[in-house]
Amino acid sequence: MHFEYRDPWTNHTKLVYTVTRIYESFESEIQQIDVFEAKDWGTVLALGGVTNVTDRDESSYHEMLAHVAVLAHPNPKRVLIIGGGDGGTLREVLRHPEVEQAVLVDIDGEVIRCAKQYFPHLAKAFKNPRAEVLVEDGLAYVQRAKEAGETFDVILVDSTDPVDGAVELFTEAFYRDCAAVLGEQGILVPQSDSPVFFPGRVKHIVDTLGGIFANTRLYVGQCVAYPSGFWAFCAASQGIDVGSVSLDMTRIQRLEPQLRYMNAEMFRACFALPTYIRRALAGDLRRGEPTLGDDADTMEIPDTDD
């Protein structure tokens, strides 16, 4: 017998999985956790009723979150990951031999346990000697790091969407704490939501980071199981304009055979934004959507002769 699992992309649109097996469904101290097998998608991890990871498309999200910043930094020795308890972003970070230490801080130890049991291809990163995995509040960790004078070269915020408990990870206060623990050329990248369904959220992240950092660059990539299948990330830095760096081709060529999504061309292309996203970032949220017919009256369609 098959079941359906419905992931609400919006109040009116859902991604519906055909579930062939339920592995676990329970409430941790932090959130609802569901792990199941679905036709076309393989194993799926959902947090709070929303897709977090699928076998089908995890590589594109994790590669885009991790590699843009790590490749853009000239010497990324220390990397901090806030969230990311599935291990996928950590796995990608540790593909870089330049990284000497990667610290992952996730508030929910049950996510880490599920990853070890059901996503071993992701969780193998937890065993890497360069990895330090902590179960605690990422907000508190960053505050302590600031007070202790610690520095990181890259910070990646691999959180759930900016609702409920994750809201604090999208605030100016948190971003300022991150800025305080980044090195001179340090780079912060939070996952930045769906520019198709939630352009206001994307604009808020870009604007907030832009008030703190000298350089901010929104970039986009394919994340099929997330709302619209098209996802945004924002790279922020005081010392590096991530979108215009000269790539070390030796580093990326060494990396490419291990990847399924990212490559040198994709690195350059991901900063090219569709016009509707540019409009949204400029404040025209009414027209900052792919198309809902809002500007049909202003479109000029030339006459053509038969």
How would you describe what is shown here?
This protein is of the alpha/beta class. It has two domains: 3-54, Spermidine Synthase, Chain: A, domain 2 (Roll), CATH 2.30.140; 58-281, Vaccinia Virus protein VP39 (Rossmann fold, 3-Layer(aba) Sandwich), CATH 3.40.50.150. It has ten helices and twelve strands. The chain has helices spanning 58-72, 88-93, 109-118, 120-123, 138-148, 172-181, 199-210, 249-255, 264-269, 275-281, and strands spanning 3-8, 14-27, 32-38, 42-47, 50-54, 78-83, 101-106, 131-135, 152-158, 182-190, 215-222, 230-237. It has a seven-stranded mixed β-sheet, with helices on both faces. Helix 6 (172-181) links the parallel strand 9 (152-158) and strand 10. Helix 5 packs across helix 6 (172-181). The longest helix is centred in the N-terminal third of the chain and has 15 residues, at 58-72. The protein is globular.
Distance between the termini: 57 Å
| Main sheet characteristics | 7 strands, mixed
- Binned, the helix content reads 25-40%
Give the strand order, joined by hyphens, for the main sheet. Answer: 8-7-6-9-10-12-11
| Uncertain residue segments | 295-299
- Helix count? 10
Taken in chain order, the helices and strands follow as EEEEEHEHEHHEHEHEHEEHHH
Quaternary state reads: single chain
| Percentage of residues in DSSP E strands | 25-35%
What CATH first level of the largest domain would be assigned? Alpha Beta
Overall strand count: 12
CATH architectural category of the largest domain? 3-Layer(aba) Sandwich
- Report mean pLDDT, rounded to a whole number: 92
Kindly report the CATH topology of the largest domain. Rossmann fold
CATH homologous superfamily heading of the largest domain:
Vaccinia Virus protein VP39
State the domain count.
2
Radius of gyration using CA atoms only: 20 Å
Tell me the structural class.
Answer: alpha/beta
